[in-house]
Design goal:
With 186 residues, the protein is an alpha+beta fold. The protein folds into two domains: 30 residues; 154 residues, Sulfite Oxidase, Chain A, domain 2. A five-stranded mixed beta sheet has the order 2-1-10-5-6. Strands 3, 4, 7, 8 and 9 form a five-stranded antiparallel beta sheet that branches. A hairpin with a 6-residue loop joins β3 and β4. The protein starts with a helix and ends with a strand.
């Protein structure tokens, strides 16, 4: 084969790889926060979370469970002080979630509401300092797959007390919210 033809074939194959295969590989292998920028959250599934207040566009954003599962997730393991069990919770780190939603810079706290009318106020400074998780799984199972006495979802706010042993549980335990359905950024 002529050297020029060989070089031409190499360039064509390499260009094909860059144009078609690399973008497919990146999309298939990584959950990407760009999902928040392009997704309009208008799916047919029932929304499980509404985020409103000081968000980009000042318009509430509704998420169904599939929307949330597509975002980058973390799994944290926490020792339960009462039962002695170690549980694993999977979900989205709340500080990452809020940062990528585009909250207003003057925001100072969240109001987290649950479907059972429980409400908690959480300072954004605390979310930035400690590991808060918007959890959708416990021990590898979605909350609705757990026995009824453990089903506290579909979403819950979990704080990683194990990672921050100096946190006063009596002060922060009120920020553990089960049945989360609404977050308002103020």
């Amino acid at each position: 084969m002529d050297a020029r033809l060989y070089h031409f074939v190499q360039v064509v194959v390499f260009s094909f790889f860059l144009i078609f295969l690399v973008p497919l590989t990146n999309k298939a292998n990584s959950a990407d926060w760009d999902f928040l920028k392009i997704h309009k959250f208008e799916g047919t599934a029932k929304p499980v979370l509404t985020v409103g207040g000081k968000v980009q566009g000042n318009k509430p954003i509704k998420f169904d469970l599939n929307d949330l599962i597509q975002l980058p997730s973390e799994t944290i393991s926490i020792h339960h002080s009462v039962t002695g069990q170690r549980n694993q919770y999977t979900g989205i780190l709340l500080d990452d979630f809020l940062n990528h939603l585009g909250i207003a810079p003057d925001s100072s706290y969240l109001i987290i509401r649950a479907s059972n009318n429980y409400k908690s106020v959480v300072k954004i400074n605390d979310i930035n300092r400690f590991e808060y998780l918007l959890s959708y799984k416990k021990n590898g199972k979605f909350y609705n797959q757990l026995p009824s006495e453990e089903d506290r979802g579909p979403l819950a706010i979990i704080i990683n007390f194990d990672k921050h042993p100096g946190l006063d549980f009596d002060i922060y335990k009120h920020q553990l919210v089960w049945f989360v359905e609404n977050i308002t950024i103020e």
